Every structure is written in structure tokens, then in C-alpha cells.
Amino acid sequence: MEPILTVDNLKTYFFQSEGTVKAVDGASFEVYPGQTLGLVGESGCGKSITARSILRLVDKPGRIVDGSIQYYPANGGQALELTELPSDGATMREIRGKDIALIFQEPMTSFSAHYSVGNQIMEAIRIHDRGLSQQAARARAVDLLRKTGVPMAEQRLDMYSFQLSGGLRQRVMIAMALACTPRILIADEPTTALDVTTQAQILALLKDLQRSFGMAIILITHDMGVIAEMADEVAVMYLGRVVERGPVDQIFHAPRHPYTRALLRSIPSIDGEPRTKLPTIRGSIPHPYSRPQGCPFHPRCLERIAGVCDQHEPALARMADGQAVACFLHHREEIRQN
Amino acid sequence: MLAYFTRRLLLALVTTIAISALSFVIIQLPPGDYIDQYIAQLSASGSAISREEAEALREQYGLNQPIWVQYGLWMGKIMRGDFGISLEWQRPVSEVIGERLWLTIVVSLAAIMFTWMVALPIGIYSAVRQYSPGDYLFTLIGFVGIAIPNFMLGLILMYIGFRFFNSNVGGLFSADFETAPWSAAKVWDMVKHLPLPVFVLGLGGMAQLIRIMRANLLDELRKPYVVTARAKGLTETQAILKYPVRAALNPFASTVGYLLPYTVSGSIIVSLVLGLPTVGPVLLKSLVAQDMFLAGSIILLLGVLTVIGTLISDLLLMWIEPRIRFQAH
Fold it and tell me: Which of A101, A109, A127 has its CB closest to that of B223?
């Protein structure tokens, strides 16, 4: 299967007067049609900035400094290099919302409280379908709300986001993202702000919609449970870098990178001994201005090889079974420093 | 919503009555009364009236009655549109303030419009292009504008006008039109005289408004809904104008409340300096001369304008801010 989006060695840096924050520092992954890619990692590892880089919505002082984002349009035409398009240009705006849509963690603040949700959904429809009449757009918005399981869709359309419950708000947000049946949906922590029951419903809804629309999903989360539920493919990020990548079963059953293993160990298990402490990853994420030399994870790694991991940086290398990992425990390939 | 509106209206009425009582108390505060002042003035000019005449005058104005009766009489007259006689001008208060009130409103509204029309776009620009050279330039101009007292600016501009262009730039009319009856030519003459007072009156407020707009908008620009709007495919400009600017405008609706009385009283010193025929100088003079009915009427007017302004800004907020609209039933 051909990917519809490939991100290769993406680097997005933030140039601040205090120093440069390498929010994304060499992220690579592929997105396949109809599949879900889980982008997982601790907070601050660059997941969200990766998503915003794809849509070219990185604000100053942030900038994509290196790497490529190739998007393969629906008509089978030539791949578009998104990093080279002007971010406020017509092509990029045509892609946003129509080809690649975005939903956020916090649907409360992601909607404007000054316009009804209907106004905002219909806007999303009519940006890319200018000839559509107000009535037709409204009918489509109602239809979208029904598809996303919003009861009394007609009335809800005239409501404001603060009048809806958290779960409904997220459904409406999803409906808005689906306004133009995008080929890729980027869901940035879509269920983090919701309670567990609602979370399960939203995840089920996303899966359902993925089947009927055939779209790819990039699911950004720090929740391994959500990944297990949803993802086909997983990319584990640490300090702006993908450290391990592979099919979800392999990542869960045969994790290679010490970081992935540590992440999986820190999930509470139903078989766990009561009143025992959950294993944690020792240390904490280094300060963004002082990245460690060598492998970014080595100060927190229990299996680090002295003289190697603190000197050299491992490259993300594909193993025989298709899984890719950036760790010297598994290969000797390193990133050449320029 | 109707209930909310009715409640606000009733509250406004109660407030107005309270203000009228307060204005009346202020009128009564100086020792003596209108007749004492009148006698003092007459004797200062060498003439006098008899005790009987004075009592007759007191009777005529109801000044020998208890204070609450006097208040009732005063209010009763005001209800019928009679604001009493100005001691100093020896003319009905309504006649003294009348034309000046309209001129004041014209000058002040022009100043406010100028302020908003210049300040809002600059504020938006300064926020969107934060820390750009343009932002720094406007910030500099803004702080200079805040720092210079506007009467000083008026003086400087008048000096420049007089010294270098040999024209007297004060006033609102040319000498020929000062006392002429209203005509199209007089209106046009006023329009020609407006820019200077409008600029002087507007500059300080403009600088402040730029800072407020910039700060409001900077807060809003960081909110996720802006990213949502851009992620839909809106252009930067469309997204910013429709969402964060709309949100940043809210605080302005609430300033309408004090803008209205400010239009009448906020420009006293500038009006004096520039020789503008507005209400401000009259208020100042009436206070100095203890011209009680005139001062009281203007104070009452300011109070009522504040109440009306507040009511308008409440309604405006309800109209532009859905969160208030739906919590106010």
C-alpha cells in the first residue's frame, strides 16, 4: 500500500531569545489511507508541534528548519512538498480542512464562543465549497451532526459551544473536522479532557467514521490504552524524535526501545499486585534548552552503554521484521552530525 | 431576556432618582441659598432689595419650604422640562446649556469616532505583528500620546498655528459665524474647525485604546480557536478578523457606559484652552460662581448620561456576547 503522507526527518525549532527549543528534531513516519497512526509520548515530546507542522500552522518564533512532508493528493497527481509551500498560500489553505483536518484536545476553547457551532461548521463547509447555498450547507451540517451521533442535531446547530456537554462538544468538533470529508484526520489528544465513558464513545465513533469515510487518522496521545484500542501503526516520540516505530502488536508485545518498554511498564495492569507502586521512568524530561549529548534518552536509560550512548546519537533504523528503532542496543547505525 | 431587560430598566430608573436626589443635595451644600447669593451679588453691585422682596422671592422659588418639598418642586419642574434659572446668566438653564450641549455632543462624538477608527486598526496591527518595527513605532507614539496632557498639546498646536501659519486655530467657528444663525455655511465652517479639537481630544484616548486593543488581541490570538479557524482553510486575515478580533472587541462595549458622560464633561480644560463653546467650561464656571441650579442641572445630566450609557453598554454586551445573552434570562 502507498502512503498518503510521509514525514521524513522533520525538524521544527523555536528560536527564542533564551535559546533554541528543538520541539521536533527529526521525526519520521508514514501515514496510510484508512489506517490509524498512533503518535505517542510524554507531554512536551513534540507530538502536537509535529501535527501543526504538517498543517503548516507553526507560529513564530517556530519554524520548520529541515526535513520533508510529502502529501500525495487524491487525484494521484504529483506529491506535494508541504514544507515548501507558503503557509498562508492558496494551495496550503486548500489542503487544510479539505484534505487534512484537525481536532483538538479541548473542544471548549477550540470553538469560538461568539458564534453558534452551526455557523462554525457551515463556515468549514463553505470555505471549500463556495458555490453551496446557505440552506444546503445547513442541511449538510445537520447531516454531519447526525453522523457523529449528536441528538436533536437541528436544534444543536444553533447552540453555542458553552451550552453543550464535553462529549457533545467533541462530537460537534469531529463533525466540523469532517465537513469536507478529509483524507487525513489529525486528532490531537481527542479524548484527554473527557471522562472514561465518553472517551470510549468518542473512540468508537472515530473508528466508525474512519470505516465509513475511509480516512487515515493520526492519533496523538500519551495514553497507551487509547493506542492499543485505535492504532494500526505506532510511532513513539521522545524529545522531538521518533525513537521506535512499528505495527501496534509488535510495539506492545515486542518493544525494542528501552523508552517504549518503560512506557509500557508504567501502565497499571489489572493483574497487578494491589498496593504496590507503579514503575515509573526515572528522572524527567530534560529542559528544552539543554538536550543531552548522544542518545536523548540515555540519562534516564537503565541499559545505556557507557561511552556509546552518551557520545553518539542512534539513527532510526528498520529491523528485519519491519519495526524501526533508534537504539544502539539493536544496531550501530548513528546519525551523522553535520 | 425580556425580564432581564425590564429589570435593568427599573434599576436604571431607581439609580436616576438616587442621582437626582444626590445632585439636589450637592446644590444645597453651600451655606445660604440662591436668594442670599442674589442679595450678595446685588449689594456687591451697589443696589439692594428689601427683606419683603427677598421673602417674596423665597416664596416664589419655594426656598422657605422643607428640603424634601423643595426637592419635590425641583423634580416636578424638571419633569416638565424646566431646569430653573441660571443665577449668573440670568437665563433659563436649558437655554444656557441647550446649543452648547449639541456642540459638545458633535465634538465628542467626532473625537470618539476618530479615536476608534484610528486606534482599532493600529491595535490589531500591533498585536498581529507583535515586536515588529511598526509595533514599536506605534507603541512609542502611543506612550507619547498618553504622556502629553491634551490641553498642553492643544496649546502647542495653537502656538504653531499662530506662529507659523498666522491663523487663530481656536474655537469652533470663524468670527463671522460665531453668532450667526444656523445655516449650511455655518455647519461647513464648523466642520472645517473640527479637526484640531478632535485630534487634541482624541489623541490621549487613542493611545490608550491602542494599548488595550493590542493586549486584548494578544490574549485572544493564543487561544486554540484561532488555530481551529486557520486549520479549516481560512486565510490568516479572515481567521483573525472573524474570531479573535471579535472577542477582543468585547471590553470596548463596556466602555460605552462612561464614554457618554465623558463626552460632556471630559474635555473641560481642552475646551477652555481651545475656546470651544461646549458644556465643560460652563460647568466649571457655574461651580466656581456657585450658580446652583445650573451646576445641579449639569451634574444631574451627567448622572443620567452615565445611567443611559451603562444601560446601552449592557444591551450591547448582551447583543455581541452570547455567553451573557444566554445566562441572562
Answer: A109
